[in-house]
Amino acid sequence: MTIQETAALLRAQNDVLILTHRRPDGDTVGCAAGLCRALRALGKRAWVLYNPDTTALFTPYLEGLIAPEGAEPAFVVSVDIAGRGLFPQVEERWLARGIDLAIDHHPSYEGFARESCVDAARAACGEIVFEIAQALGPVTADIALPLYVAVATDTGCFMYGNTSPASHRTAAALMETGIDYQAVNKRHFRTKSLRRLQLESGIIAGMELHNGGKLAIASVSLARMAELGATEEDADDIAAFVGQVEGVESSVTIRELRDGGCKLSVRTVGGLNATKVCACLGGGGHAAAAGCTVPGTIEEAKAAILEAIRAVEQK
Ligand SMILES: [Mn+2]
What we know:
- By secondary structure, the chain is an alpha/beta fold.
- It folds into two domains: 3-189, inorganic pyrophosphatase (n-terminal core), CATH 3.90.1640; 194-314, Diaminopimelate Epimerase, Chain A, domain 1, CATH 3.10.310.
- The chain has helices at residues 3-11, 26-41, 92-97, 125-136, 141-154, 165-175, 181-189, 194-206, 222-228, 274-279, 298-314, and strands at residues 15-19, 45-48, 75-79, 101-104, 115-118, 208-210, 215-220, 250-256, 262-268, 284-285, 289-294.
- 40% of the residues are buried.
- The structure holds manganese (II) ion.
- Manganese (II) ion binds next to loops.
């Protein structure tokens, strides 16, 4: 459906529930909050379904918007959810009931909803929800703020490769509503927990450089996590960290797993294909970012991935 058709469908509803995806990020949370507020501005009853995975970083945006238990909405909307496998467990009964409308930007969107408004050319689902909100009525600052969070976080503060002129145009329009975007940028891009910085410090201290400094291998042990009292939130996207070292083209981050074995994340900017490397060890992903899980200790994982990289380089 087009933006206008989607807005018309939403305008015809009075009782809407909005679903976010498993391990919610700024895009899904920002879209849910922005859409919920836009619908409420029209006098409609709208809620966001409670998602137990939501971290403290994002819960403030949902204040006053979480559906009371037992709410029975007439119309269910999913935002930024590409497939059924990404619905949090709590939402299974909504899956059984069926999703009325999906708003998404993933190329892999599975088409699970009765109606869909999907544009895979968009960097963030927030760009699509912004246009829908505009079609519904005036976009005020309380609607604009979570949508800015959505676009800013999915584009890595307008630095990832997915960032487009449209992302900047959306951000500009949202900024013009008078939101405190500097506070959002500080919160999401210029702030790290002390434990996160200590984690990064330990990673750099133990990092190994190979191939004349083009390949970096780093690890995070369970013991180190426990010593710092670090949570998964502190370790979020840690695989992107070592790749920031100047001259490094490929990086491997090894995380020791609670149930034994190690999870390896490979990131590349040079010629090495991360998927081919990880495929040697039973994993997969994209050419620039891939992962795999191997049995054994960190040292054994390190030896295995070095072997896999050598094998792929020799081909
Ligand atoms: Mn997204």
